[in-house]
Amino acid sequence: MSFSLKNVISIKDFSKKDINYILKEAEGMEPIARSQKTSQVMTGRILGMMFYEPSTRTRLSFETAMKRMSGGVIGFAETGASSVTKGENLADTARMVAEYADALVIRHNLEGAARYVSDIVNVPVINAGDGAGQHPTQTLLDLYTMRRIFGKIDGLKVALIGDLKYGRTVHSLSYALGMFGVKMSFVSPPELRMPPEILHDLKQNKVVAQETNNLQDVLDEVDILYVTRIQKERFPDPEEYSRIKGAYQIDASLIKGKDLIVMHPLPRVDEVSPDLDDTPYGKYFEQAFYGVPVRMALLNSLLSSF
């Protein structure tokens, strides 16, 4: 097996073979991510980080992944620490960082920003989230989490809950789960339904997905509750956000006795109660850790042939 992609922009660019390759590579990287082994495969390599939007887990796990493999990291975690504040445009910033680094990781508020950058630089580009568009590396770590916990992905039943309109994590994840024959349930307020173009694509690929606004409809039917926060920063109307926030709240009493787990890409606000943190249900912190071996696998696969 080998990895066929030169950039990581959208999960739609991946084949099932590509996904399985990265997940398999991540298994081998996990002991290094846990400091049980060391690696020098990125010695002399530098990763450029361009974060136009806030990030904790994605940014730190990419940095950790590179450093666990003995590579270096440069870049900015906020535009206030860059020449963006002086009016430098995205293209010029990307070209400059690409002169200093062997690969770029970019998070941007505009959909399509990562693909645009990949067209103008000569190093691999990884999309760390583009507005309400895609977040492919989050999807890969989500899939890895599912496989580590259940031993498989094929045939699982997953409910995607919360902000399905603006949530880029669920956009990417729904496409990937469809490749594995996962039965999906989309649980959201009517205002935050999964975008129609994604529903259309899934239907075209004969992916089974049901929609509901009632969480109780799925609690006895699924293996995984994949919960997302209502994304205040994406709402054009603050009043609309105020009406919808807190629409779904998962706590221990709600799922007591259920045979399922709770995942969340984080950060959470009030949609997952802390009383789940130390229970067998709550897997979101474990999920966040798995971002390190998965991103190690991605970086190594992209740069080993570059």
Secondary structure elements and pairings:
Layout: H1 16-33, E1 46-51, H2 57-68, E2 72-76, H3 90-100, E3 103-108, H4 113-120, E4 125-130, H5 136-150, E5 157-161, H6 168-179, E6 183-187, H7 196-204, E7 209-212, E8 224-227, H8 238-244, H9 252-255, E9 261-263, H10 284-289, H11 291-303
Give helix % range: 25-40%
CATH topology of the largest domain: Rossmann fold
What is the spatial order of strands in the main beta sheet? 7-6-5-8-9
The global form is: globular
- The CATH superfamily of the largest domain appears as Aspartate/ornithine carbamoyltransferase
What distinguishing features does this structure have?
four-stranded parallel β-sheet; 2 domains; Rossmann fold; alpha/beta; 306 residues; 11 helices
Q: Can you put this structure into words, describing what you see?
A:
With 306 residues, the chain is an alpha/beta fold. It folds into 2 domains: 11-133 and 289-303, Aspartate/ornithine carbamoyltransferase (Rossmann fold), CATH 3.40.50; 136-287, Aspartate/ornithine carbamoyltransferase (Rossmann fold, 3-Layer(aba) Sandwich). Helices cover 38% and strands 14% of the residues. It is built from 11 helices and 9 strands. The protein has a 5-stranded parallel sheet with strand order 7-6-5-8-9, covered by helices on one side. Strands 2-1-3-4 form a 4-stranded parallel sheet, sandwiched between helices. The longest helix has 18 residues, at 16-33. It is globular, with a radius of gyration of 19 Å. The model has no long low-confidence stretch (mean pLDDT 92).
Provide a compact summary of the structure.
The chain is of the alpha/beta class.
